[in-house]
Amino acid sequence: MIAVTSLLLSQYLIGSIYSIDNNKAAFPVVLFALEYGALIYFVLTSPSASRVRSGFTNRVAISAGKISYSTYTWHLPIELGLYQLGLPALAWAAISTALALTVASWSFRNLETPFLELRNRFLAVKGWGQALSESERICDEVSVMAVSPDLVRFTF
Question: Which of 29, 35, 45, 89 could bond to 149 as cystine, CB 3.0-4.6 Å?
Answer without folding.
Answer: 45
